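TA notes, week 10

Several of you asked for a full example with nothing omitted. So below is the full record: C-alpha cells for the whole chain, then the designed sequence directly under it. When grading your own attempts, check the secondary structure regions first.
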C-alpha cells in the first residue's frame, strides 16, 4: 500500500520555503500528494541566531499532513497539521560575564488554516493558526540557579505560514 502511495506521489510534489522565517534560519518543506486533496510533507529547519540577547542554535525535522479543500496543489483553502522535533542549545552571558548554556529537546506542533495560490509551477501560501512548543516559556539559569535570560521560545502562540513554493 505505501509503495503505491509513494509511486503515485512522485509526479506531484511541492518544495517550499518560508522566506520570512529565514531571518531566524533556513527552512525547507517537501510535500507529496497522496490523494486528491491530501499531502504528506517533511520539514527541516536550522537556527543559528541571537534573539533578545540569547543565542539559539540547532535544527529540527518534522512531518506535516495537509488537506487542500479544492485539490492538492491547486488554488485552495488548506489546513495543515504538523509536528517537529528539534535539538537546540540556548546560551546567554550573565551579569558576571560568564556564559550559561542549556540544551533543549523541543516538540513543536502546529495547526494552520490558510490559502494557497498556484501559477504553473510557482505558488504562494499564506496562513495562520496556533503553535505549541514543549521547551517554551522557560528561563536560562546560571550555575547558582539565578535567572540569566528568558528563553525566546513561546509555549503557545500564533503560528504563521508565508511560503513560496515550486511544484515538480
Amino acid at each position: 500500500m505505501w509503495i503505491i502511495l509513494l509511486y503515485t506521489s512522485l509526479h506531484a510534489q511541492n518544495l517550499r520555503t518560508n522566506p520570512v522565517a529565514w531571518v531566524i534560519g533556513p527552512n525547507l518543506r517537501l510535500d507529496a500528494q497522496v490523494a486528491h486533496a491530501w499531502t504528506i510533507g517533511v520539514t527541516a529547519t536550522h537556527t543559528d541566531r541571537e534573539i533578545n540577547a540569547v543565542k539559539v542554535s540547532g535544527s529540527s525535522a518534522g512531518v506535516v499532513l495537509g488537506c487542500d479543500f479544492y485539490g492538492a496543489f491547486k488554488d485552495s483553502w488548506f489546513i495543515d497539521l504538523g509536528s517537529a522535533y528539534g535539538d537546540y542549545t540556548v546560551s546567554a552571558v550573565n551579569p558576571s560575564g560568564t556564559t550559561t548554556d542549556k540544551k533543549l529537546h523541543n516538540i513543536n506542533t502546529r495547526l494552520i488554516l490558510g490559502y494557497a495560490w498556484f501559477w504553473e509551477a510557482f505558488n504562494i501560501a499564506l496562513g495562520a493558526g496556533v503553535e505549541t512548543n514543549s521547551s517554551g516559556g522557560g528561563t536560562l539559569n546560571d550555575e547558582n540557579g539565578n535567572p540569566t535570560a528568558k528563553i525566546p521560545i513561546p509555549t503557545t502562540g500564533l503560528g504563521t505560514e508565508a511560503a513560496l513554493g515550486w511544484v515538480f
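Residues 2-167 form a domain with the Porin fold (CATH 2.40.160.20). Use that as a sanity check on your answer.
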